[in-house]
Amino acid sequence: MTEGGPVAIDSCSVGNAGRYGGRVGNLAIAYRNLRPVALHRVVLLVNYRGLRRRISDAGTFTQGALIRHNFSNLNGSPFSGPNPDNCTVIAAQSVSGRWWRRGGAERDDF
Known about the structure:
Elements: E1 2-4, E2 7-16, E3 24-33, E4 39-48, E5 51-61, E6 66-71, E7 86-94, E8 99-101
Antiparallel strand pairs: 1-2, 2-3, 3-6, 4-5, 4-7, 7-8
């Protein structure tokens, strides 16, 4: 599990659409909102064997709820193992419209 500001990533894995050496089938990410305020958007950056993908997930994500979503951002890329090189939260937006961004000042009221 990795934490990034208001969000903790519980898992991040790449699925194989066929046998080893085939193509990526999906990108499965599970994360939790750590803050008491609901989030409207979570933005992640995934690096998989040199392919960098920015993923924006929108919804209403309440505190502590485990969010499990599959994304097609890497579909069709060569599969070379289930673990991305990096899976990081780079931004999050609360339902009130406030943004948290990695590298920015932490806010207690976010």
